[in-house]
Design goal:
Layout: H1 2-19, E1 34-37, E2 39-40, E3 53-54, H2 56-68, E4 72-73, H3 76-85, E5 93-100, H4 103-116, E6 120-124, H5 149-157, E7 161-165, H6 178-196, E8 202-204, H7 214-222, E9 227-233, E10 247-251, H8 258-267
Helix pairs in contact: 2-4, 6-7
């Protein structure tokens, strides 16, 4: 009898073990929801960073989910108004962010956002606009086109997209001399503001490097950014303590589905 009960329990245990990879069993976690995307499209042959690519079909499904569930998508300027006033976040507020500024954001993400009535934000690497992702080793991630200044301006003028800084050249900030790191952070703000004619109130650390290094983070705050964003997984409490820590984000992977998205939004992570 004991053996038969144990054998019957095995399938249940297997199902439980597999489902425990996901965070459905965790309590919902409060805080600011910031989704982090990179590239929208199909990864090119030879890409070893396929998780950075989300298909247009999946992106559309994820944005449709947000809109169907009543989420309001915020621009950086919307978040700044809330922060300045001390107002609470809308109950279902979310920031959609893209790192780097790829042309595929213009070709694939922007039309979907326009169609579905959503808004988003891009952290732009200033020196590579209109070029390619020069910081990547082509052996691991083939070079792809970055958005041009004209494409970026078109998206901004539509009211659908706003921009933040992702440095001048996408370096590992902690590997640079302090003065060079400070220049990458501050000069990108100056150049982007001159190019787009508006304040750049948000900054994201390339690779997340420096977000939790006090000496580097101090340079981002000194440069005048209101917000600085990490690449660490999670949600950040609101009202946000600017001096306390950078804002964490919810990394959306190429293999994620809408259930993963729902868990990210509620639990702060979808998988262990």
């Amino acid at each position: 009898m004991t053996l038969s009960i144990s054998a019957a329990a095995i399938p249940v245990l297997i199902v439980f073990a597999l489902s425990a990879r996901w965070t459905w069993w965790r309590a919902s976690k409060p805080g600011l929801k910031v989704l982090c995307y990179h590239k929208i499209g199909a990864p090119p042959p030879g890409s070893k960073l396929k998780e950075l690519w989300v298909s247009p079909e999946k992106f559309r499904a994820q944005v449709k989910y947000l809109m169907a569930k009543g989420f309001s998508t915020l621009l950086f300027s919307d978040l700044k108004k809330l922060h300045a006033s001390g107002a609470p976040l809308p109950e279902k507020a979310v920031l959609i962010t893209f790192d780097d500024g790829y042309e595929n954001n213009y070709l694939h993400a922007w039309p979907i956002l326009k169609e579905l009535g959503a808004k988003a934000n891009i952290f732009v690497v200033f020196n590579t606009k209109g070029k390619v992702n020069l910081w990547h080793d082509p052996a691991s991630e083939p070079w792809v086109n970055m958005a041009t200044l004209e494409q970026l301006k078109e998206m901004q003028n539509s009211g659908v997209m706003e921009y933040g800084s992702h440095t001048m050249s996408h370096p590992h900030l902690s590997a640079l001399p302090p003065g060079d790191a400070a220049w990458e952070i501050a000069e990108s703000k100056r150049q982007l503001e001159a190019a787009f004619g508006r304040e750049m109130c948000a900054f994201a650390y390339p690779y997340g490097d420096g977000a939790y290094a006090p000496a580097i983070r101090e340079k981002a705050l000194e440069a005048g950014y209101t917000f600085d964003f990490s690449f660490r997984q999670g949600k950040t409490g609101w009202p946000w303590n600017r001096k306390g820590s950078a804002i964490d984000r919810l990394f959306i992977r190429g293999g994620d589905n809408t259930w993963d998205l729902a868990l990210q939004l509620s639990r702060g992570a979808s998988r262990l």
